[in-house]
Design a protein that fits this description.
Its cofactor is Cu cation. Its main location: nucleus. GO terms for molecular function: copper ion binding; protein-lysine 6-oxidase activity. Residues 1-23 form the signal peptide. There is one protein chain. 13% of the residues lie in helices and 27% in strands. By secondary structure, the protein is α+β, with helices and mostly antiparallel strands. The strands form nine sheets. Strands 14, 15, 16, 17, 18, 19 and 20 form a seven-stranded mixed β-sheet that branches. Strands 1, 2, 3, 4, 5 and 6 form a six-stranded mixed β-sheet that branches. Strands 21, 22, 23, 24, 25 and 26 form a six-stranded mixed β-sheet that branches. The longest helix has 23 residues, at 2-24. It starts with a helix and ends in a 14-residue tail after the last helix.
Length: 770
């Protein structure tokens, strides 16, 4: 009796579970099964090139020591063998044919002399001459396929655009050698299927779909491996993959008939992009497009801690960097920068010899990002300071840290001009969709407008400009992926935006500079306060791809420090410019002030010149010193007790910003003589000698003891820089009443956190409260 009852009962329970599952997918009842936010795209018409019957059937790929996926040595597959192309007579027109044949929109450049390493096998084409209109490299004029007198030192390489040809469809002309070919599709995506994942930002789980011939298609999971999942997750900004509940996806696949791509995928797991993976079996030929009883491929990716999935309301969570053995510096956005490693308590850089996409990907995954988008060389993201810790790095791609890779401990011949950098794939957080610049002359400038919820709907509005400054502007440019801020504006009457967006929707904004979006900065809640109002007084920004980066030379400070007793009658100009202690006002003219003097050598290690914010017509003339100040406060000098209390201070106006000296091969551009232009050129430095006025701290009232000496450059953030963390320098200082010693001088951020914390004062110049 019990058995007879249990069967219908179990059946009823199963029906109930099925209804629950169906409810979860109810929102997916659209044509073709595409949820909202993923409309079926308009069909692009792409027709395969019609080649003359006698045209050699070839396939192309980009190979070699690549620093991004869309570049490399041009290799040709013909007669069952991969070979290369000689650089003789090659041109940008030939590169255009190669890139178009691979599905890229256009060629960017080409490189001779085996820039991407020497290939192997035959050199299939030599003396290639194309017009740029050919449908295949095989149609260009050449010596004939396989006819060449070149060596592999002449292998040619190309750089293609990031954009793919709309509607591109991969056509395989090598049916018997499909597994020798690389994957060529128009686009790839992770499409969230379960409603619980569709609400998350970023999307971490769903179908893997490829766009081929203008149509999105699923991939059969019969030959899918975890190595494939690792590559896909890396492309979308995730450092790893995990298991998922396969049952619900099988149920969904039965309800919605998938449209499978013709091929399977074969990755080794260390590729930075799926285009470097090989094609697998032809699914259509193998199982009549039914996937042989399998289901569509699903991936579930593990996001880095900074990108944990949150609802739309969770944008306020700021990006928090943690102390690790590796860090990125000098980048404009999250996930890019110069690579620095920690060794023996000191941060140093990596030399770019043998720097590759593989090694860069290890760095990106270690830091919680996905695979590398680009490996950069030649100090492209600014020059570092301190030692060069690693050189000639070779990684397998599966290391947990760049420090586990093989490398040459000797860095002889490497300088900071060869500092390696990376751009990593980061998850799509949707930040760019909630902010815009309006009214500017170009897309890089304008009034800042924010998308907010108002009266149950979304509306655009402005940001109050009270307290708006460089740091806030930096966050805006970062959020919009426009680089660095070049200016922060508190009036925008010259940039008329949409009238409907005039009302202020955000006020009291204060940023630290580490935020990924403006909404993560401190700001007023529902109770806005903005006396000036929005409209013409709203906040605005202008952005730039590059920025300067000022760094003080600590060794010069340490080597030039001394003490001088100077009579008050020789300090009248300095007194007028407030370069002395407040007690100096009571000092008789025939008495002395005790000065701690030193030289400052300030280098511009960034990517653009450092220019004063004020235009020349607004510089302030000082009669006493007979010169102009382009920045009233260029540096702060502070003497601190060992508990961090300020006991003496000084400041330095920019008496003259100029190129005192430059690195070899760089010409001076700025000179103050004859009311000349002021600034510091990239690769040059400005020296303020110890014997000029105000290049000191007045220590007349200081008792003998141990102190911390601190210098902060550009303390008020008047001029945007790519990195403010290295704008301060600290030294230990001992004063016995007769002599003074300066030692252990170092720049901010150059030592480990533990070592830095033993020095009081500023730990990070980005968190000064203004």
């Amino acid at each position: 009796m019990l058995a007879a009852w249990s069967l219908p009962c179990c059946f009823t329970i199963l029906l109930g579970l099925l209804e629950l599952c169906r409810a979860q997918y109810e929102h997916l009842g659209y044509p073709h099964g595409y949820p909202q936010g993923y409309p079926e795209p308009e069909q692009e018409q792409y027709s395969a090139p019609e080649l003359p019957p006698d045209t050699p059937r070839i396939q192309l790929r980009l190979a070699g020591d690549k620093r991004k996926h869309n570049e490399g040595r041009v290799e040709v597959f013909y007669d069952g063998e991969w070979g290369t192309v000689c650089d003789d007579d090659f041109s940008i027109h030939s590169a255009q044919v190669v890139c178009r044949e691979l599905g890229y929109l256009e060629a960017v450049s080409w490189s001779p002399s085996s820039k991407y390493g020497k290939g192997e096998g035959r050199i299939w084409f030599d003396n290639v001459q194309c017009t740029g209109k050919e449908k295949s490299l095989a149609l260009c004029t050449s010596n004939g396929i396989g006819v060449s007198d070149c060596k592999h030192t002449e292998d040619v390489g190309v750089v293609c655009s990031d954009k793919r040809i709309p509607g591109f469809k991969f056509i395989n002309t090598m049916a018997n050698n499909v597994q020798s070919l690389n994957i060529q599709v128009e686009d790839v995506r992770i499409r969230a299927i379960l409603s619980s994942y569709r609400k998350r930002i970023p999307v971490t789980e769903g179908y893997v779909e490829v766009k081929d011939g203008g149509k999105w298609k699923q991939i059969c999971d019969v030959e899918w491996t975890k190595h494939n999942s690792r590559v896909i997750c890396g492309m979308f900004g995730f450092p790893g993959e995990r298991k998922y509940n396969a049952r619900v996806y099988k149920m969904f696949a039965r309800r919605r008939k998938p449209s499978y791509w013709d091929y399977s995928v074969n990755c080794t797991g260390n590729e930075a992009h799926v285009s470097s993976c090989k094609l697998g079996h032809d699914v259509a030929a193998k199982a009549n497009s039914t996937c042989g009883g399998g289901t569509p491929v699903v991936v579930s990716c593990v996001p880095g801690r900074a990108f944990s999935p949150t609802p739309m309301t969770g944008f306020r969570k700021a990006f928090r960097q943690e102390q690790t053995l590796v860090r990125l510096r000098g980048g404009a956005i999250v996930g890019e920068g110069r690579v620095e490693v920690l060794k023996n308590g000191e941060w140093g850089t990596i030399c770019d010899d043998n720097w590759s996409l593989l090694s860069a990907t290890v760095v990106c995954r270690e830091l919680g990002f996905g695979s590398a988008k680009e490996a950069l060389s030649g100090g492209r993201l600014g020059q570092g300071m301190g030692p060069v810790h690693m050189n000639e790095i070779e990684c397998s791609g599966f290391e947990k840290s760049i420090t586990e890779c093989f490398f040459n401990k000797e860095s002889l011949g490497c300088s900071h001009e060869e500092d390696a950098a990376v751009r990593c794939n980061v998850p799509a957080m949707g930040f760019q969709e909630r902010l815009r610049l309006s009214g500017g002359r170009n897309p890089n400038e304008g009034r800042v407008e924010v998308l907010v919820e108002r009266n149950g709907s979304q509306a655009w509005g402005t940001v109050c400009s009270d307290g708006w400054g460089t740091i806030e502007a930096m966050v805006v440019c970062k959020q919009l992926d426009l680089g660095f801020a070049s200016n922060a504006f508190q009036e925008t009457w010259y940039w008329p935006g949409e009238v409907s967006a005039d009302p202020v929707v955000m006020s009291g904004v204060r940023c630290s500079g580490t935020e990924m979006s403006l909404s993560q900065c401190l700001h007023h809640g529902a109770h806005l306060t903005c006396p000036k109002g929005g409209g013409r007084n709203a906040a605005g920004v202008s952005c730039s791809e590059t920025a300067p980066d000022l760094v003080l030379n600590p060794q010069i400070v340490e080597q030039t420090t001394y003490m001088e007793d100077r009579p008050m009658f020789m300090l009248q100009c300095a007194y007028e410019e407030n370069c002395l202690s407040t007690t100096s006002s009571e000092t008789p003219a025939n008495s002395y002030r005790r000065l701690l003097r030193f030289s400052s050598q300030i280098h511009n290690n960034g990517q653009s010149d450092f220019r004063p914010k004020a235009e020349r017509h607004s510089w302030v003339w000082h009669d006493c010193h007979s010169h102009y100040h382009s920045m009233e406060v260029f540096t702060h000098y502070d003497l601190l007790s060992l508990n961090g209390t300020k006991v003496a201070e000084g400041h330095k106006a920019s008496f003259c910003l100029e190129d005192t000296e430059c690195e070899e091969g760089i010409e001076k551009r700025y000179e103050c003589a004859n009311f000349g232009e002021q600034g510091i050129t990239v690769g040059c430095w400005d020296t303020y000698r110890h014997d000029i006025d105000c290049q000191w701290i007045d220590i007349t009232d200081i008792k003998p003891g141990d102190y911390i000496f601190q210098v902060v450059i550009n303390p008020n953030y008047e001029v945007p820089e790519s990195d403010y963390t290295n704008n301060f320098m600290k030294c230990r200082c001992r004063y016995d009443g007769h002599r003074i010693w300066m030692y252990s001088c170092h720049n901010g951020g150059s030592l480990s956190t533990e070592t830095e914390e033993s020095f009081p004062g500023l730990l990070n110049n980005q968190v000064i409260h203004r």
